[in-house]
Design a protein that fits this description.
The protein has helices at 2-22, 45-59, 72-89, 124-128, 132-140, 203-212, 219-233, 273-280, 285-295, 298-307, 314-336, 339-348, 355-366, 407-410, and strands at residues 26-33, 63-68, 93-100, 103-106, 109-112, 130-131, 146-152, 182-186, 241-244, 382-384, 390-392, 446-448, 454-456, 465-468, 486-489. With 502 residues, it is α/β, with parallel strands linked by helices.
Length: 502
């Protein structure tokens, strides 16, 4: 009996030790639920979603900070405090943010909506909401092991003032273009709107609570299950989406002691459209639909649409494929941010919910000053930059690096400039004051100062002294008029009625 109890104790100790090893990393979570909106209809489920997620994450070893119904200032303060906690814990920290509430995209930027917004026009959003990129940048500003963001934020837009001009849902964010170690999940695909749900929790949170509790299940596999579950629950109206640049494995609940986490992480296989056609051929339509939803790639959806044209799932799959391609094109246009890029988007998608935004951004760019043309010098290694200096020449521009040349044929405000040539100007000669004439009795020299004023310097008169001499009897020359009796040397001789130097 004692022997069995001792063995059971050892097994339990091994399980606890394994879980402790899995939790050696620091885990911090910020959970925000926005329900009590003041100027629009309140959302019932975000508060419930936040409470359920806080419980799940606490059980999974996270130190959870919960917040509800935040104003813009409180929202920013909470994110800043959360970043400070990450910095205090150190770089071996998993930082997770869960947000439930309204989310919007304006001009290609995503915003999370505080409860105190009072929107009267589209331009109020950047002033009153919280930019998603600011949250990401704040988390990236402190070293951490990985960052996980889960946004149940694409619910139906209730703001009538911007409903006709703003794009639907959230704009696409590709985590692979940012810092590695980031996982981002939306409750529905970019450009689509999510449902709040009829139950206690939203369809997205309900599916996440179930998938994340499985021990050792990788985060990638967990969200594949979330996609399938939400797609089924909403009859294809909503399909979650995610983007990952993770470089390490992660599971919400660690594997049991001795189990390999890699066994629950499926191998990532990139298939072509033709390979997907072969994979889906002969499958029941329901099974094929689950396969493409779990995969979530354009190639899988394109193969499904071609094979199951008459299926009841075909319209939903086609809508997902068209919307995803449109949002990728929109993301490219926003990143380039040129007139040519937005016009190219309008050529592809002339009538979409983003048409008004694209035209507005084109008009805005027309008033942006055009940069000076780049002109190569004779050596071919330098170019004249906007400031007139030289800049190193690089290779041909890539699609991710927009060139100003695209503005030439498309922007009517841009006029061709004449070529810039370097001309050696003749050396200039410094002007100088002419030398004063050199002759006896000339005036003192004129000395120019720094302000080109002429200063006349006069010598002080020599000392005046008198030498007594012999009496003069007959005044000839010098003693005239009774001025005899001595010689005045060196000074002026004054005569009646006249004054001067003699």
């Amino acid at each position: 009996m004692f022997r069995h109890v001792f063995c059971a104790t050892l097994v339990l100790a091994g399980i606890i030790a394994g879980a402790g090893a899995a939790h050696a990393e620091n885990r911090l979570a910020l959970v925000i639920g926005q329900s009590a909106y003041r100027t629009v209809t309140a959302l019932p489920n975000p508060a419930n979603d936040a409470r359920a997620m806080s419980q799940l994450l606490g059980d999974a070893g996270f130190e959870v900070t919960s917040a509800a119904d935040l104003s813009q200032k409180d929202f920013n303060d909470k994110v800043g405090e959360f970043a400070a906690k990450i910095a205090a814990k150190g770089p071996d920290t998993v930082a997770l943010v869960f947000y439930a509430g309204h989310g919007l995209q304006i001009d290609g930027e995503n915003y999370l909506v505080p409860v105190d917004v009072d929107l009267r026009r589209e331009t109020d959003i950047p002033l009153q909401a919280v930019r998603l990129n600011d949250v990401l940048n704040t988390l990236n500003s402190v070293p951490s092991k990985m960052r996980i963001l889960m946004l149940d934020a694409c619910r139906n837009d209730p703001f009538a003032a911007i409903k006709q001009t703003a794009g639907h849902g959230l704009a696409l964010v590709d985590t692979k273009t940012g810092a590695p170690g980031t996982f981002l999940s939306y409750s529905t695909s970019p450009g689509a709107e999510a449902e709040d749900g009829n139950g206690t929790d939203s369809p997205y949170t309900t599916a996440l609570l179930a998938a994340a509790r499985e021990p050792g299940l990788s985060i990638e596999e967990a969200f594949k299950r979330v996609r399938v579950s939400v797609n089924k629950a909403t009859e294809g109206r909503q399909t979650p989406w995610d983007s990952s640049s993770l470089t390490e494995d992660f599971a919400f609940v660690p594997s049991p002691a001795g189990a390999s986490a890699a066994a629950l992480k499926p191998a990532v296989v990139k298939r072509s459209v033709e390979q997907w056609r072969q994979q889906l051929q002969g499958k029941p339509v329901e099974v094929a639909n689950e396969m493409i939803v779990a995969d979530g790639t354009d190639e899988a959806y394109e193969a499904f649409v071609a094979l199951f044209t008459q299926s009841p799932y075909a319209p939903q799959a086609r809508d997902w494929l068209d919307r995803h391609r449109r949002m990728v094109a929109w993301s490219d246009a926003v990143q380039h941010n040129t007139v040519a890029a937005y016009r190219g988007f309008l050529v592809q998608y002339p009538d979409s919910d983003l048409t008004a935004t694209a035209r507005k951004l084109i008009d805005r760019l027309r008033y942006r000053p055009s940069p000076l043309p780049v002109v190569a010098t004779a050596g071919g290694s330098n170019a004249v930059g906007p400031s007139g200096g030289s800049a190193p020449q690089s290779g041909p521009a890539t699609p991710s690096q927009p060139t100003t040349a695209a503005l030439g044929p498309t922007c009517p405000c841009t006029t061709p400039s004449l070529p810039i040539k370097k001309v050696d100007a003749p050396p200039t000669r410094k002007s100088r004051e002419p030398d004063p004439p050199k002759h006896a009795g000339s005036r003192p020299p004129r000395i120019p100062n720094g302000d080109d004023d002429v200063v006349v310097v006069r010598r002080p008169p020599p000392p005046d002294y008198y030498e007594p001499g012999a009496p003069v009897g007959i005044g000839i020359g010098i003693g005239i008029g009774g001025y005899g009796g001595g010689i005045r040397r060196g000074g002026p001789i004054e005569l009646p009625g006249r004054r001067g130097n003699y």
